[in-house]
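A further point concerns the way the authors explain their paired sequence and structure data. Showing the layout once, in full, would remove most of the difficulty. For illustration, here is how one protein appears when written out as sequence plus structure tokens:
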Amino acid sequence: MDPPDTLSPGLYDYDLLVIGGGSGGLAVAKEAAGFMKKVLFLDLLAPSPRGAERGSCSDIDSIRKFLQQASLLRQAIQDSQKYGWRFKQEVLHDWSELVQAVQGQVRSASLELKRELRSCGVSHLNAHGRIVAPRTVEVTDVDGRKRRLTAETLVVATGTTPQCLCIPGETEYCITSKDLLSLPRPPGRTLVVGGSAEGLECAGFLSGLGLPVTVALTPDLLPGFDQKTARKIENHMIVAGVDFLYRCSLSKVEQTKDATSGDSAAAPQQGREGTLRVTVISKEGQTLQKDFDTVLVAVGRKACTSDIGLESVGVQRCRDSGRILVNERDQTSVDHIYAIGSVQHGRRSATGLSVHAGKLLARRLYGGGSVLCDYTCVPTVVLTPLEYAACGLSEEKAKLTFGEANVEAYHSHYWPLEWILPARNKNSCYVKVVCHIPDHERVVGLHIMGPNAGDILQGFAAAMKCGLTKQQLDATVGIHPGSAQVLTSLTQTQRMSEALMVRGNC
């Protein structure tokens, strides 16, 4: 539904104009339309420089899950032999079929989204929006045509984009996670630069497909997450065959001819001939060169706010990350402009959280609501092959917040029942419950590392919102057989269980 060229009967063309295709922006647009408000949703679906198709945030989450499942299926095929399955022929993976299936699903989801917006009464344009006056947005469509539209309220939901290393050769030869499925052939020997959740997910997916993967930890491993659990993720990936480079930085990437790179399983990215030679500098200043077929950069993300005119109306944002400063009402420094989702400064980014916040914002604006979004205790998941889900504080953050003497951490390793027959990774799965002792041992952090960790965590996240205590957790009857029951039987504190592990009894 294209916006009309004539003005609406009110002062402005629209009651609400949303800039960007983030999931929070979609939510606020659809919810506002339900209150019979005139809404315009601007989202420029431009491909990445490598030609990858871009979808909404929900599409990106779906892609993450599809890729994780692709890697898990390889392990499941191996495990199935212990359950009596036999194959008449060799099982092979076809990269192009995976790419076509996932991209087809993204295109279908995009069409379905457009139909949903039309049914909700939301006007949608594949166009770029730039604020040029307090309530005026210059809209530029894919053909370069410009026009100006006005709205009483503006919402920024432009999302984030991968950060760059800013080194020679990066633009020409490196890719990011959003470009991974634009490669016509398997990425072969891959260097993943960055220990972010995004980087570890990509590394785990490629390793799960049987490709050689190296991770350069630039700078840290899963920053913001519980570090003891993060190290267990790292150990599991090492056992699975992923190499790690520590305390190093990349100085340049260059292309080099290599006669040994003709193997289709190790084809250089974008069909280039030769391999990519990466120069790495250690913390001690030593220079090392390594050859790869693909270099994937995942060193963090920055907000897509540099070209939407925020400075012209005085919207304050963080200089380094580009993220927008907001108050508890998701309101920027300009009263009628709001920001939702990963563009917000200082708040955790999650699709479910953005959708929830967007709905609440629309209800406050147009439905007489007063409920604010609670940005604490937000569940999140890292879709590595051994999944990691977390809610609340890490052990390190809890001790900084409450003091070490006021925090107790209970934890346990476990072995999923379905892994016992194939004798796979005994005691590599892990749970941790972080409690605030003075508050009746209220659970302030919950961390699960194992199959379907995100699904297991969801219900416990709801309990944490209600003030779950360790005593209540102990009183919960676990489902047997099942992995989640381990959370209801944590009886030893971290210090006690670590002492047992030292003696080899755990």
